[in-house]
Write a structure and sequence with these properties.
8 helices, six-stranded mixed sheet, three-stranded parallel sheet, Spore Coat Polysaccharide Biosynthesis Protein SpsA, Chain A, alpha/beta, about 230 residues, single chain, globular
């Protein structure tokens, strides 16, 4: 669980993990130097580490290292502003069919919280993906994955980490595409495991990202980075 300046939302995300029907898990939380110290649950299954601010890509890399050291065989991401459905982990464990297995997610808003925890909240859209449409065409790949629902094997640790040059929402796509190019296998099961909650402060606002001056720079870098991946560099 990466987090930055979302103490209240992080508490809700952690509660959705505590509510799981499958309870044999361990959670790693990497705080990217929040201005207010979050207070994760006292449950010993949570490992919380606070770092100096380094950006999302660096924070993802920290989490991968924490998971690598922890020794668990599989892992998933949980955004500090998202909520797992009660049977999310149980469903993921039942579908260990590839190095990275995606499920579906529901786009929803921030309320009512109790209905999210129970898994009965209504959304306004369902996002699915189709690994059968993956190809060496990066655009096709980008249109057919759910980073937020990725259920990963330890094989992903042998591949490159997140590229810290990217900070505008490109870094997750580039990392997953790197896994694909380096031979990790991908699959999908059409069951919902997560509520992706839309709010002003997340990266669902594409226009907000485009308005950032870094976006044009990183978009130009991305084409070269994809080329280097395909050339094996």
């Amino acid at each position: 669980m990466p987090t930055y300046n979302r103490a209240g939302l992080l508490e809700q995300a952690c509660q959705s993990l505590l509510n799981q029907t499958h309870q044999d898990w361990h959670a790693y939380i990497a705080d990217d130097g929040s201005s207010v110290m979050p207070q994760p649950p006292t449950d010993p299954r949570f490992t919380f580490v606070r770092y100096t601010h380094g950006g999302l890509a660096r924070n993802f890399n920290r989490l991968l290292k924490m998971w690598e050291a922890g020794g668990q065989e599989r892992a998933t991401w949980l955004g500090d502003d998202d909520i797992l459905l009660p049977m999310a982990l149980e469903r993921m464990i039942a579908h260990q069919t590839a190095d990275v297995v995606f499920s579906d997610l529901i786009y929803t808003n921030m309320a009512p919280l109790d209905e999210h925890f129970m898994g009965i909240a209504e959304g306004w859209g369902r996002r699915t993906c189709d690994p059968r449409r993956y190809s060496l065409d990066a655009a096709s790949f980008h249109d057919n994955f759910n980073m937020g629902t990725a259920f990963m094997s330890r094989n992903v640790l042998a591949a490159p980490r997140f590229d810290t040059r990217f900070t505008t929402g490109i870094e997750d796509f580039l990392w997953l595409y790197g896994l694909f190019v380096h031979g990790c296998t991908f699959d999908h099961f059409p069951e919902v495991t997560k509520y992706y909650r839309i709010h002003d402060g997340n990266n669902s606002n594409v226009q907000r990202m485009i308005e950032r001056p870094e976006y044009a720079i990183e978009s130009a870098l991305l084409e070269q980075a994809v080329h280097e991946l395909r050339e094996g560099r």
